[in-house]
Amino acid sequence: MLARPTQKATLLLRSALLRVPARAFGKRASKPGDANTLDVDSYDPWAHHSTFTLSWGSGKEGKLGHGTTASKSRTTVIPRLNDVSVRALACGAMHTVAIVDSPQPQTVHAWGCNFYSQAGHVSEPTGFFVEDEEGDQVLNPTPIYGLEDFRVAEIASGDFHSLALTAPREEQPPGSESGGGKVYTWGAGLLGHNDEVYDANPQPVRYFQDIRREVVAIGANANYSLAVARAETKSETTTHAPIPTENEVYVWGYLRSHTGELLKALSPVVVQASLGSFTEKAVCGYESFAVLSTRLDDGTRIRTLSVFGLGKREQPRKTTLETKAGWLGWLKGAPGEQDRVLPEHKTFKKLPDYPPSWEVPLLKTVYPFEPILQVPVEITVADLALGPGFVVILEDSGSIHLLELPWASDLGSRNETRHQLWRLGIELPNNARARNIVLGPNSLHCRTTEGGVYVWTPERNHSDGDAPLDLFDSLKMQRGSWDRVIERDVKILAGGWDHWAAFVDRRRYTLFRKNGTI
After folding, report:
1. What is the C-alpha to C-alpha distance for residues 447 and 101, in angstroms, rounded to an integer?
2. Which pLDDT belongs to residue 150?
3. Could you tell me which residues come within 8 angstroms of residue 37 by beta carbon, excluding any fewer than 6 positions away?
4. Would you state the pLDDT for residue 282?
5. Quick check: 283 and 222 in contact, CB under 8 A?
6. Is it true that the peptide bond before 173 is cis, omega within 30 degrees of 0?
């Protein structure tokens, strides 16, 4: 791996090697726009627009998309995305990505930190060995060139990289050279290209084409990526209960074994334990990933949740986030306190913590490890998310369940009672029903069927300097409360470590209001 820049003296090397000029590949370079003139703090998008996007939390490196690096304790409009339709949002550690559908043809936009090209911007160089600071912050949503010629179905972001999945072939525009089910990656880390080169230009992960697989879903977190892929569609007849065609789970990047050993995969490797079943959903946590799958056992259809990677740790994991007590208290705030400045010590460090490549064992072809936990799932799962040492599962009825992972030092134990699903009695206010969840290291956000957004705020531990309770303990003991963030009409909700984004679509509401039906 190329050495990561840690001092000013290494910036020339970074410009020459880590940041590949877009024109070197015959592509246009996306350019971050000028700062917005709109006063986002006083502007009310609800009164002027039927569609808009909000963001809040830490504004470090411009990842909120407001044209500045200011942090926001309340939801604030992203001016560049007013009156456009956003189909997907994804948040990394210090950047944000969106699929923008209208009014222009679909494009993928990104903003925030671009120090490792994760925002997909490459400024036009004036010389090869010229220091390039302009593109390190993309303060407004800016198109990523290289993805505009075909329809993108999904996006995902890790800490310092992103992925895009193309829609099926039948949904591609006429004349598109891209087939369906292809994965493109850009940013830092191991991007699946069988090398260790960082790139601002989205490049296809050709491994799936080489083995004739079509990718149907993607995910990312931390410094690794995940994809669910299938072979060409085949029809089978069976006398058993109907089950969809089998598919496979692949991962690549920096991965953890069940013992905590750090491994790397330069190209996708298949998760051996996923073979022979149909994956309904796969999600990525920071040091583990979960697969919800269905298989046939003696003619009976069985749904299982399997978690791979590292279990709970005795000591907090080392991350790029400097966590301090009081972050959620600041975010919640009192009406007279919500405009105070976010303390700098609650923001991210600038650089990812990648180890030297020669110190990390290499995985090839197969991820051979068994799941650290497998539990039968008899409920209808609407959504699930992985936290540090636990899983949150949202039932279709809106009930929230909690599953604790085994301790990393105690994976030989099989305490079945401990690892059953716990149904939590933390109902949303006003009989609201949760539709999907976004889980961060210290927060749980829920989007309701009406499009409202609520955040779970843990109680403070008065015996520990008034610091908030650990999120898992707060959920398990039901010591906390729901606070409303957005009242209604949110269609898409996404979150990172300390910032969040939501797309609001009020077109149906506006139409009814004009017709006098509400």
Report:
1. 22
2. 85
3. none
4. 97
5. no
6. no
* Cα 450 → chain centroid: 23
**Number of separate domains in the chain:** 1
Looking at residue 107, which CATH number applies to its domain? Answer: 2.130.10.30
Q: What is the pLDDT of residues 374-392, one digit of tens each?
A: 999 989 999 999 988 899 9
- Whether the pLDDT of residue 512 is over 90: the answer is no
Return the half-sphere exposure (C-beta side, CA atoms, 13 A cut-off) of residue 297.
Answer: 7
Instruction: Provide the residue range defining the domain that includes 193.
Output: 8-514
What gap in Å lies between CA 343 and CA 50, rounded to an integer?
Answer: 34
Residue 406 pLDDT:
86
126 in a structural domain: yes
Within a domain: 423? yes
Instruction: State whether the Cα torsion 202-205-206-212 is positive or negative.
Output: negative
Q: Which residue has the higher pLDDT, 18 or 324?
A: 18
Assess if residue 3 is contained within a domain. no
Residue 469 region by backbone torsions, left for phi larger than 0, else alpha for psi between -120 and 50, else beta: beta
Q: Which residue has the higher pLDDT, 222 or 241?
A: 222
Answer whether residue 258 is part of any domain.
yes
Q: List Cβ neighbours of 442 (8 Å cut-off, separation of 6 or more).
A: 323, 327, 328, 458, 468, 471
| Radius of gyration over every alpha carbon of the chain, rounded to an integer in angstroms | 22
Average pLDDT for 451-459: 93
119: left (phi over 0), alpha (psi -120 to 50) or beta: alpha
Question: CB within 8 A of 135, min separation 6: which ones?
Answer: 19, 32, 114, 121, 122, 123
CB 248 within 8 A of CB 213: yes
CA–CA separation, 437 and 493 (whole Å)? 8
Cα angle, residue 53 at apex, residues 48 and 55 outer, rounded to 5°: 120
Confidence (pLDDT) at 96: 98
Contact between residue 113 and residue 127 where contact means Cβ atoms under 8 Å apart: no
DSSP string over 306-368: EEEE--B-SSPPP-SB---TTHHHHHH--TTTTTSPPPGGGSB-SS--PPPGGGSPBP-SEE-
Rounded Cα–Cα distance for residues 398 and 390 (Å): 19
Which amino acid does the sequence have at 301? R
d(CA 2, CA 109): 27
Closest CA to 194 of 209, 178, 205, 210: 205
d(CA 353, CA 254): 11
Cα dihedral 346, 352, 358, 360 sign: positive
Residue type, 447: R
DSSP readout, 447-502?
EETTS-EEEEEEPEEGGGTTEEPPHHHHHHHT-EEEEEEE-S-EEEEEE-SSEEEE
